[in-house]
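lol ok so funny story. i was supposed to be doing the assay writeup but got distracted and ended up predicting the structure for this chain instead. priorities right. anyway since i did it might as well share w the group, maybe its usefull for someone
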Amino acid sequence: MNWDDLRVFLAVARRESLSAAARGLRIDPATVSRRIARLEEETGAALFAKSPQGYALTEAGARLMGHAVQAEAALLAGQAEVAGQGAQGLSGQIRIGAPDGVANFLLPDVCARILDDNPELEIQIVALPRLFNLSRREADMAVTVSAPTAGRLLVQKVSDYHLTLAATCGYLDRHPPIRSLDDLRGHRMVGYIPDMIFDKELDYLEEIGVDRVKLASNSVSVQYHWVAGGAGLGVLHDFSLPHHPDLCRILPDQTRLTRSFYLVRHQDDARLERLNRFAALLSERLRAEINRKEGLS
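and the output, tada:
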């Protein structure tokens, strides 16, 4: 079985699109289609089912996926060993999936500093307000806000972090005072779209007794900009507060919440020293960045 064909197969399986796979591989879609057809002819089975949503793996495709991922892992491990990456710097491409809070306010600085020490690395951050499918290799690793309990995954806790109800000092000067949680009823609330909360750990407002959101988005970044622009009150990450000097905490003794970040990888990657080293470095730097920014807020 040709590795180049398997590489194309993995790209289509992960992106669920011929055109997206072609862009990622930097080849034309017709070549991708020919490679998949050749692989299906060789295996004697249809590997994908096409639908309006894109290309989905068939049962035969899902079985091949596991073997293709193992082949890819073995190839990467071999490349790392030949390159002598034991005590030297890290190199190659690593993709991190993350919810947009950590992707906006923590990972940019952390990854830039890691790259300063490892100039041969290529780091990609995929910021999406949803869970990542590591079995389909949408990312090499993912930062999550809860620990997965199913699947062949390596899960390590990175750090606790905190969130607090906040608004701009300007907003608070223009609106009625907030002396208790009951006073929140007279204010415009910013938060998640209720039916698009992809993890129960993100249901912050319910925890402080707010049941109505006037400005809602599935994006932490949009919520942050609403609050920082003086549009209302919202629960913000403490590590995001230093990014806007006019933000003030509201009733911190009653509205401060504690959550945790986890770093999640596929179990098959435990053999890859390169990813092991990067995961350890990323966890250490994330933990330090959370402590630093929470100390500034």
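The first strand starts at residue 48 and ends at 51. The chain has a mean pLDDT of 89.
back to the writeup now i swear
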